[in-house]
Amino acid sequence: MPKALHANMFLVRYAREVMDPGVLVLPSETSFDAFLRQHEAQGRFRHVVVTQKGRIYGVIRVNTGLWRGLEGAHTPVTLGDVASRDYTVVRDDAIAFDVIQRMWRKHAFMAVVVRGAWGSPGR
After folding, report:
1. Count of alpha carbons within 13 Å of 35, Cβ hemisphere only?
2. What is the per-residue pLDDT across 5-42, written as a single tens digit (0 to 9) for each?
3. How remote is the C-alpha of 78 from its chain's centroid?
4. Regarding beta strands 55-63 and 45-52, do their DSSP bridges make them parallel or antiparallel, or are they unpaired?
5. What letter would DSSP give residue 78?
6. Which fold has domain 3-114?
7. How far apart are CA 88 and CA 78, in angstroms?
8. Which of 39, 74, 87, 111 has its CA at 20 to 30 Å from residue 12's CA atom?
9. Contact, 24 vs 48, CB < 8 A?
10. Closest CA to 48 of 30, 37, 62, 34
11. Phi/psi of residue 23, nearest 5 degrees
12. Percentage helix, strand, coil, to 5, in the chain?
């Protein structure tokens, strides 16, 4: 199969098949320092959906290895303070091509995948 078709095959998969299943859903008042300390051993990028009053407030993609450089620092910063509002919400049965199109149209850097008819964030 030609390599050009490999990329095209990715675009027809469902969002639930290509999403990061390890997303965390955390409240906006969670301390950013505490979050980094808790996940520092993983030393990788984590995707976080930040909620406020039971609704999606924003998203974060953070390198948890940052804590190694900030060990002595203690700040009052919360996940809500650093969450990006540049996201869009898509259903888990959306086709990857449509998700990418929606992200471009909404100027979003991340898509939050939800189950069913706008249910809870997908895993």
Report:
1. 29
2. 445 666 678 999 988 888 999 999 999 888 887 876 56
3. 16
4. antiparallel
5. B
6. CBS-domain (3.10.580)
7. 21
8. 87
9. yes
10. 62
11. -65, 145
12. 35, 30, 35
